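From the pipeline queue, job 12 of 40. The input is one protein chain; the requested action is below.

Action: predict structure.
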Amino acid sequence: MNNKTIRVAAAQFHVGTDVDHNLATVLRMLDRAAEVQPDLVVLPEFCNYLSWYDDQAHCADVSVTLDGPFLQAVSEKARSLGIHVVINCTVLREDGTVTGSSLLYSPEGQLLADNTKQIYIGHENDFLEPAHEPGPVVETPLGRIGLYACMDGVINEPPRTLALRGAQVLCNSYNSFAGDEGSLHVPVRAPENRVFIVAANKVGPLVPEAILVPVSEATGIPQKFLHGAGESQIVAPDGEVLACASMDQEEIVFADIEPALADDKHRADGTDIFACRRPELYASIGQDPSGQSYPQWRGAESVSAAVVDPLCGGRDGLREAVALAGKAVEGGARLVAVPPLLGAEAIAADLPAALDFAGEVVESLRQCCDDECYVSTALPMRGEDGENRYCAVLIGANGVVLSQGQVHRSERFAWSAPTAGFDSAELPFARVAVMTSDDSIYPESFRLLALAGVDTAVVPLDPLEAWELRTGLLERSAENRINLLAAAIGSTLGRGFATALQRDFTVLTPWKERAFDGLLSQPELFRMEDGQQLLPVTLFPAAAENKEVSRNTDLVSSRPWKLCGAITAT
């Protein structure tokens, strides 16, 4: 293992409508970044011209060519400063098409990587050609580097494929007004893949300043949300944000990292999260969405639900859980999430006793239910085949309605026989899936739920790492448009929460219930507060039908299915 430490930097700045001025800004910011002596500098998306075009001819006119003066100046600047540079521009290709592409230059000024964006958002689809090949992973003296841009990181597949193909450092150039990019979509890609992320965003107006006011008035979007949201950042493989820029200032942020640490894909319990993937189950992720259809099902417009926290486990915790679940049902909740009442260590210490206790849990929670109310938790169970499994269960008035065994093997539940796939239950108000902790860390798991038409998921969580509660499960809900109840066993890592899908969703369409809040895809978030044991929430199952984040950009069906071979390869 090469334990070399390198310094990486992200530069955030404004890009306007004057290509020459934008080049001057790029060169100035590279000079400024050089003051911190970086090995690698990442610049934002669309550095040559902001993403706003009159027509296709205009888009081509303001784009750059690989051998033209704009990029030759960047190449020369990389050479003169002796640094690796990642820049994203709209590139006019020899066949007349224009691509949004990230380019990696070496300290010698050589073009090492040319990676075209796989997913465009909104009007970008009208002008720019998407990638037809997976992005390269480049072996450099700094480590193995992969590139992606903006919308490619709002869903999991593009960064995932780069990580699976060996990338240690992922460079994300983005051009975003959205507050949830910096707080959620950017940082989550590091721990879910165990890689380093270096991400650079813009500040200042993202539309021509001359039309900023009329665009705001025409769209109903406040002017502040037509500006780049900043928060360029560097994230470690465990999810720690090593450096983060402001939301509105031109800035350079940097950190020292050790790329080889990204080769270690083990969790705290020793589970190798790449080796334990189940690609044989992921085939639908790589299939043409036009040949797929969601099951013919529409959930209720709204349903009352709750997350409870008994604060302790065992029989004392069970009594408290029953009381809390009963209170939630009396308050109108039809779906209640209860955390696991036995942790992994307690189960492994005495599995027969844990199996006996599981029977008590089911019977006790069953009594909280009626024909319209259901409770979910996680516990060990013995299947009809005689195998022992760790399961997330959905309990109704007559007992277990759905038992979802753990699909991905983990060391702390090594005694659990893996289950071959995910299932769901069609309840009167929602299509509900339940999932164990150690399945929920895999982005493929929730993607399969979305493809199966699930609109609501429950995860009784026994967390191992803080990122699961901070960004992991929230991202699973956001990138798939699935309502979520996450009930966390007592831990210093965080507490349970719920997400409710907004019914007003697609950007630049009329909204009835909420003002534009700067979020791209993050659902409404409700977290347990200190001292709180019962979190009531209203979920919106029917809202899961709309996954179009912007015109012609669907969070699920716009995934780059043709380029997902690294995910589905067995």
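Job complete. The longest helix spans residues 314-330.
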